[in-house]
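Support case: user asked for a sample of complex input and structure output to validate their parser. Sending the pair below.
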Amino acid sequence: MSTRIQTGGRLIDRTKSVTFKFNGRKLQGYAGDTLASALLANDQMLVGRSFKYHRPRGVVASGAEEPNALVNMGEGAFFEPNQRATTTEVFDGLTATSQNHWPTLEFDVGAINTYLSRFLPAGFYYKMFMYPRAFWKHVYEPFIRQSAGLGKAPKQKDGSDYEHFYAFYDVVVIGGGIAGLQAAKTAAAAGAKVLVMEQTADWGGRAVVDGAEIDGASADAFVAATVAELQAMDNVTLKTRMMGAGVYDHGYLLGYERVSDHDPSLAGPRHRLWRIRTAQIISATGAIERPLSFAGNDIPGVLLASAVRDYLVNWGVSIGERTIVVTNNDDAYRTAIALKQAGLSVPMILDARKSGGGALAQQARDMGIRVENGKAIAKVHGGKRVTAVSICDQAGEGVVLDTIGCDAVAMSGGWSPVVHLYSHCGGKLNWDAEQVMFRPDLTRMPTNQNGQGFVMPAGTANGEMSTAATLADATARALDVVAALGKSAPTLTAPTAASEDAAAIEPVWMMPQGANIKLRMKSWLDYQNDVKVSDVQLAAREGYESVEHTKRYTTLGMATDQGKLSNINGLATLSGALNADIPQVGTTTFRPPYTPISLASIAGSARDEVFQPIRKTPMQDWHMANGADFEPVGHWRRPYCFPRAGETKAQAVEREILQTRKSLGLLDASTLGKIIVKGPDAGKFMDMLYTNMMSTLKVGKCRYGLMCSENGFLSDDGVVARIDENTFLCHTTTGGADRIHAHMEEWLQTEWWDWKVYTANVTEQFAQVAVVGPNARKVLEKLGGMDVSKEALGFMEWADGTLGGFDARVYRISFSGELSYEIAVPASQGRVFWDALLAAGAEFNVMPYGTEALHVMRAEKGFIMIGDETDGTIIPQDLGLNWAISKKKEDYIGKRAQERTFMVDSKRWKLVGLETTDGSVIPDGAYAVGEGVNANGQRNMIGRVTSTYYSPTLGRGIAMGLVLDGPDRMGETIEFPKVDGGSITAKIVDQVFYDKEGTKQDV
Amino acid sequence: MKRYSIFAVAREAARYHTGWDRAWASPEPKKKYDAIIIGAGGHGLATAYYLGKNHGIKNVAILEKGWLGGGNTGRNTTIIRSNYLQDPSAAIYEKSRSLYETMSQDLNYNVMFSPRGVIMLAQTEHEVRGYLRTAHANAQQGVATEFIGPEQVKKLVPIINIHGPRYPVLGGLWQARGGTARHDAVAWGYARACSDMGMDVIQKCEVTGVRRENGRVVGVDTTKGAIDCDKLGIVVAGHTSDLAEMAGFRLPIESVALQALVSEPIKPCMDVVVMANTVHGYMSQSDKGEMVIGGGTDGFNNYTQRGSFHHIEETVRALVETFPMISRLKMLRQWGGIVDMTGDRSPILSKTPVDGVFVNCGWGTGGFKAIPGSGWAMAELMAKGQSPLTDEFSMWRFREGKFIDESVAAGVAH
Ligand SMILES: Cc1cc2nc3c(=O)[nH]c(=O)nc-3n(C[C@H](O)[C@H](O)[C@H](O)COP(=O)(O)OP(=O)(O)OC[C@H]3O[C@@H](n4cnc5c(N)ncnc54)[C@H](O)[C@@H]3O)c2cc1C
């Protein structure tokens, strides 16, 4: 059984016990425990079920590489699936449940798959489930989905907060082991601004567990001293519980800080995503131990040798009473020695190497541990827990020599440097055959915008396996980085450690070497996804030879641990099957993030109301207080209408229109884009931007203008006012303001950079109100202050002045067909001005109206709307707007495009009015059909509706539409089929339905 | 070719699966082929497959510079739908969708086409009108779609928040027979079928030159030597500009990174595909249980197959807002592909200025769904010189201004 032993545990505080729940059972741990160590201390070895076969799964590792120990954590708004127990710190009140089983962890019906596994090799689902066809959707797929997945889906909205940090450094060191700390110290001493991040809660990494000696003292002492030194420096920031998640181009780095996962009672955000720009990154991320491939290597109780050591030294937890160690390198001897020193039994060390180990092996022997060279595991016995191990010759086919009882196996297949962050941005690797690992190729580092390397691996992450070499390399690589920053090297004495007399590792990819198919079918590579040696060999045999094909065909390395344990073993198995060298087969691509990060941390604080920036007009509060029904328009929310008690939206719109046409309406038009174009060349620029001639516009006058894209398509419209000789004010649509401003800037900055013109988007500087209706003038006169008579301020003119004491710019323009003024006041005055208009308008029964009334009134008047009559494929000529296209100009944006053959084709659909024969409203989006079908069997279409409304003014449905030969077919009828059958007949008419002569607006 | 079936699997189980054949052969190139297809992505393989199956042209090689299916075919989020607005698009995408319905049986390879339904959310009045328009067009084009209200959306997708404070869901365009398929399987299934017809799928064979004589193609240069051919199909997505340059003409293609990501797997919680174009993100749940997420393209051209993180942020933010329960899930893996974008965001299936050279590209962010239809049409074009499905997609439409613009219906084109 696994249990807490009496002594030891560098990270736990035995005076502080914590209580937590696992599968409803109350358990005790200590402060400093991870959930994994605490579970193991309580003999909870079984922690979950695998993905495919629902095999029993126990903890195999002690850190971020753990593939098995994934649990559902928390409850309700704090529930989270797939939380890794090995990197979760326990706290009082933690609740966790195991995953992927039914009904219970101990008895899982899905485990039947394990007996069927022979029928379910890699890729089996590509070869079956094809008949009958409908079964995939209705039977097979639901079944597969139900048995796949891991944790449960959260049900509630997240109850925690998240935030983003933006930070800038010269050097960011990832990894707080001895290499990272030494590198940080070196860079900091050179004067660089440094951030050091460590994903766990503690500094020191492996060396402190392994009891290394540095400068004659313990590694612990070295770490404590170095951390203290760094803490004292102003140019250094130290962060634990922060993981380097991803490296991106141009020195962009994500740091994932888990602020309160370890103690949810802490105030503040749960996660903080650091978005860092740094000149240089030092990746001191250490290495991860590899499992060995032998039959039964997935049975709970089989762990990485380093993990067994970690649990013992860091948390005072023994995995078993009798642990068999199996290895192909010297490091695993440390585990045997540590276990023995702790008074635990190590019946045997199986060293697959014929010639055995070095000094550590001797030390183990001296302690009385039986060491067998050239031996291997033929098979592990046990179901939910290891009970015994059969041993054999590594060189043979698995003939069992002996079977030894034990309750734990500590395995080591060698170490792989953590090259993920180095590789995210294109860093390349070399295969080091001597050390049996991929390690960074410093001549092919990821490069920054200047072509200079910017992710420097250091220490073990760079392939240095001994303490001495790690420290030396960390110093040297940090000096490289210092040089790359253009700083001079500091004077430091590098720490030293004794050199170690280790025997070389030997590659062992299958144990025993000649294992038969039955053994290979029981030898796991990927524990979570259930990929075995036989699966990779099958993939190779079937022609899935590229490493990417094998990965995808078998799902090797695609589990939540992203193959941290399985990738190299899988790759080696594949190269064996292909009879090719490992480097020739190559690795799969390393993708961010290093370990999964919460989606919430990526979204940050942008949720709910502040999901996107909110833009508010100065009158927004009034709209809210007066029951506005809002619609989003870009980042604005505009009142769609102002329904009163008991009114539907349609009724409100009708009332707003009728009252505006009859007397007086008010529209908050502040969202309309307002862009100033200014400079000696402003007129010239305006003539290029608009299809109209704008340079001739007189000061004091307004002109309706059209803007097209380079492709000739109508992109925006609005009224331009000439403010003075050098200044124009361009009104754009609400949604178009930012886009049009960017469009102007693009032309100015890339094509006409030498023109003397500036633009400024002043949309939010002004509050703007449209005062509309027959009583519009009266209400302004009531406010008083400037002459707004027809004579003083004619149609399509503007003037500055004061109205009711407000500084105002008054435009006489109309989008409704009524007498209408648009009045701009400084934004700060917007609300009071609005109130003043409401007060003065009260006697006319003034009616604020929303966007829908605006749309209907403009449609009644036959005015086009960008986004309705246009859709990015419409040229002004389609809409009968030729009058707005200057014939006198040599050029404007879009002119050449409008001369292309298809643009001048007489068969382009043209804008007309549509009047239903029965007065009903044509459905939005309806198409008109012609005779027959086209070459692809589709019904021939001859037109479509672009705007369609019930007109309260006319008491009937009205519409505009684009119709083939439309203007030549006045009076004819066409058919609009409805989607639910039946059709509507409409007559082609003039598009102006209201006040054709335009007498009402020009009074 | 040994047929795949549950019986074959059972038979093989008895001998520990030692008797399976290679899914496709790995031949060396011959001296000459009737037709060469460059690019063993989905579109290239499907083109070859239908050249053989529909037109009897089987002396064909498919040349792939890397591993087959390793381009965007193996990187996409696998959404399949045909509710496009414009006639030519609806025609080819619906042809494609209908071929997906029977692809597993046609290829004897389970590509796991899952017609689970696709919803495109309408979250502004403008979007509502856009989708109503598409629904009307689709009705005339023979594409089964329907505009549904917010309550129906909620019923289909219980995890959605239809009352978000910023962009409440106003409805959606629903295509019940849209869905997803297993992307790798599509490439592998076609490769196996092509190989079975005697075609040569040649991997790690990069085309480095297009040889011409008198304005006509005669062959290609490759990293495995020169190979002759009568007809050449260029089907290389993001690298089309390079190949066009080798053949001596230019195309209006820009290459940009499009990214995607998946969460860790969880038990089933979402049965349909949802696209939210206003907030700009889309999501489905794979059979493995991962939430498969995608969003927008980078605003600059590049070939790195990586993208900028702020797009990931934008996409994830949009989806956390739309599906609040995903907030505590974790991003497992992100990646990018280089997509080939034309000026009107519609593909090019066309003859070219070089006799015998045909091009199929520009599928951009949305060509996975088009693989079988595009292969079908391209094969017809290559075999007969004309196809009603490709007529409108010629490369000369840009000169005429005859665009096929789908962005019109407020859609992004995944
Ligand atoms: C992140 C992402 C998400 C997407 N989501 C969707 C989606 O949900 N739905 C959808 O329908 N579409 C989607 N797409 C788009 C879809 O993936 C592509 O449109 C489609 O896969 C393109 O297929 P292809 O065969 O044309 O190109 P590819 O699969 O890219 O194949 C082109 C092949 O040409 C090869 N090649 C290039 N140059 C040469 C040369 N000189 N010699 C030989 N070979 C060469 C390449 O190596 C490659 O294998 C998405 C794309 C991405 C990147």
